[in-house]
């Protein structure tokens, strides 16, 4: 497969984006959500695939084994705004999903979410990850994903992250925007990657109670065992090895799955500068506390 050159970032209504996420804009904005759709929203690299797979198993884990062994998670949970012909767009895939509920993934900042999701009062699961690990994970992802902009070296990448010059814009605006939305929209469950790492059982219980699901203890245990980092790394349906634009030799998609890997990347000076900047941008004390480690 011949790949186009790496895309360039551009300003799109105040948010840094690339064309594969804006080319289908009108269709995305006019997407017709249904009341039982579930939107999984994250800033890239916050644990989207992990939570997508958890939800998919909670809803459809008992369906035919074919589903689990032959359909990659990114087809079961389409990526709403992606548009990379000749592949079908995420909005088209989502529109045609045969399952109920439809699980749909987005990285859009809250102000760009199609209005039908709010009008239909859809349930939304938002996952946030601490800023430093999120930046590190995104850096390695941009190295291996050939349809992301060229990342450059770590030092300039981090600077760009702090300035909001990454695809889907500023991490700070993203987590803050969704946090504010939660204050007025009760169907939003805001969760944290670090909590999932620390106690996946408790987080899966919280998800179930938000979604109104009551799996048996055996079902829950099956889900928990299937979504460990090691199982997902081995599983071709969740490790993205079937995606031709990702070069797993550069960096695997299922890379480390740890909290605190930033310590292997940030210099002391970078860390001080980051903390200073973080304090200024994270005005809400609760969220500031939750998103730092
Ligand atoms: P790292 O790059 O730090 O390893 P997303 O799905 O939003 O793109 O996020 C990918 C990040 O989530 C990667 O982080 C990946 O390893 C991590 N991840 C995916 N599944 C995981 C799991 N089961 N347990 C822990 N981390 C997981």
UniProtKB/TrEMBL annotation:
Keyword Cytoplasm: yes
Annotated Pfam families: Sulfotransfer_1
All copies of domain Sulfotransferase, residue ranges: 35-284
Superkingdom as given in the UniProt entry: Eukaryota
The keyword Methyltransferase is assigned to this record: no
Cellular component GO terms, alphabetical: cytoplasm
Alphabetical GO biological process terms: catecholamine metabolic process; xenobiotic metabolic process
UniProt-listed Enzyme Commission number(s): 2.8.2.-
Molecular function terms from GO: sulfotransferase activity
Main location: cytoplasm
The entry's keywords: Catecholamine metabolism, Cytoplasm, Transferase
Subcellular location: Cytoplasm
Listed InterPro entries: P-loop_NTPase, Sulfotransferase_dom
Protein family membership: Belongs to the sulfotransferase 1 family.
Name of this chain's protein: Sulfotransferase
Source organism of the structure: Haplochromis burtoni (Burton's mouthbrooder)
